[in-house]
Amino acid sequence: MKVGQLFLRLAVGTVLLVFPVAVWAENPKLLVRFLDVGQADSILILQGEHALLIDAGNNADQKTVMAELKEFQLTRLDAVIGTHVHEDHIGAMDAVIKKLSVGTVYFPRQTATTKTFQDFVNAVKTKNLKLTVPHPGDKFDLGLAHLEVLAPARADYDDPNDYSIVVRLVFGTTVFLFTGDASFESEREMLASGRELSATVLKVGHHGSATASSAAFLTAVHPKFAVICVGSGNKYGHPTAAALGRLEASGAVVYRTDQQGTLEATSDGTTVSWRRQK
């Protein structure tokens, strides 16, 4: 995989200054970028020469997602995770798969009749890949980072969002929990599983929906930071007052892509530092 330069962004007023500072392939740290793709999810994770993309925004976010990958001069992704069938998660994934070399495509046992889903499946087939269905307890590495699948536990949910693949990433003593759009039902199953859920950083479920991030789940995760991937003025009213109230009660510092833009978390294995686009 060809990896280009990591850029340090320094916001000065409304001006964003960009400076080349290092070759990320030689960097021992973990970089997690929560992309500002509006009312959608897309998260790029880099560790040394290894890269993982979780979701790829809406169809209209193709330029944004591809520009992000181009910025790091990525030609290969170790894996991509399409958390579930909704367009705001796999919209631009077909373009990513067509353009880059991809090792593994993770996707739940879920189907849809939408053109977005068919484009995604066709891209996978065109590259002679297959959809790999993960199960709770499955583990894989991303360089020095270790990931464990926590959900989904079933293949018969009433709510399509509960099919969301949930992964917990451990890097040193820092932990990131990526929840897709998992709601209360999936959260209850994760709690009942007895698996470790604690995390330094929580990617808040379902854009801050009222039916995600239950008090019990937040108590178990006990995040220091929480990131809500959400679009400004969206028609769903996300993030909801209910979810924000529970996050506030948890004590987490809350970041939002609609307010801070693309959020960049860097872990040295002990602490997590943040840079914000806006």
Question: How would you portray this structure in words?
Answer:
- With 278 residues, this protein is α/β, with parallel strands linked by helices.
- The chain has a single domain (5-276), classed as Metallo-beta-lactamase, Chain A (4-Layer Sandwich).
- It contains 8 helices and 17 strands.
- The strands form 3 sheets. The protein has an 8-stranded mixed β-sheet, covered by helices on one side.
- Helix 3 runs parallel beside helix 4 (115-126).
What's the CATH first level? Alpha Beta
Q: How many strands?
A: 17
Runs in which pLDDT lies below 50 for 5 or more consecutive residues are: 1-23
Shape: globular
End-to-end Cα distance, whole Å, is 30 Å
Count of helix runs:
8
Summed over residues and divided by their number, the pLDDT gives a mean of: 92
Strands ordered across the widest β-sheet:
8-7-6-5-4-3-16-17
Element order, helices and strands?
EEEEEHEHHEHEEEEEHEHEHEHEE
What is the count of structural domains?
Answer: 1
Strand percentage, roughly? 25-35%
- Rg for CA atoms: 17 Å
Query: Which structural class do the helices and strands define?
Result: alpha/beta
The CATH architecture comes to 4-Layer Sandwich
CATH topology group: Metallo-beta-lactamase, Chain A
